[in-house]
Amino acid sequence: MYICLPLGHAEYMKHLVLVDGHHLMYRAYWAIPRTLKTRAGEQTNAVFGVASMLLNIMQREQPDSLLFCFDAGEETFRHQENDTYKDGRAETPDDFYVQIPRIVELIETFGIPHVSDSQYEADDFLCTYAIEAEKQGMRVTIVTGDKDCFQLANKNIRIAIPHKGYMQAEYLDDKGVEEKFGVRPDQVASYKGLCGDSSDNLPGVLGIGPKTAVALLQDYGSLTGIYEHLDDIKPSWRKKLERDRDQAFFCERMAELVCDIALPLSLQDIELSNLPYGDIATFFTSMEFMALTKRLQALADSLYGQRIFTGQEQLAIAGSAGGDSGEQLSLL
Prior knowledge:
This protein has 15 helices and 8 strands. It is of the alpha/beta class. It is elongated and about 70 Å long.
């Protein structure tokens, strides 16, 4: 559990928030009705949802630094090793993808940096930045629902799973991961090697489910430890493990995160300062996010907001726009 000390306290730990961009966009898309559009007809439900959650994240976490990490495509090293990696995922509707440029525009208007690379997944950047920040004495919150990131949880790195527009985020440190899944963070990759992961099209060991995987890992510690003690494992489990040995280790390797990417942006580059209040307010107005404009003003007026925003003067918002509807209020 974090103890949040005031800025300037001798023991204050700077706070880095890392956001799994695709996960946040996907949650936003399904959280807000797809009928939300501007008066000109542009669909904005995902854009609105991301903007709303971003304000909630900033208000709740009050980060000193903030970074969005995105997937860049389907040619990562994992896809190169396994051409069926992530096959079978449900197709996301086209009206999700057409909103991505607007979401990127939103993030850039805030002045918040983002990273991606065709060779790596967002999770690999989340891992690399989290580890580096911890080395430099920072505490880290990773906003994601991806179980692969659970292997990073410890006393200084926590996972925040967004719920209710980030109004009810679920926090997991190392103890929280173990309580929720029965395995330690360092056992997550081995767990996925045994159980697989349908969302990534990784089968694991066929016939070995979560309960069995937890029991095996509690007894033998890791996938390697399990296979070193096959003779001690009951025959019905041993037969399945022997049959799918190669598949188990392959799935484990696919689940392991890369934590040593050369940082495209330094930790200094992702510090929050001088965020352009006026530009953000203007963007919200152009998208007809009137309710969000009011929340932006409230955030900017807070002690935290006064530290990170510049140009917090009131902007006149003329009239109420059609986008300021009951649909918009669902994430407030």
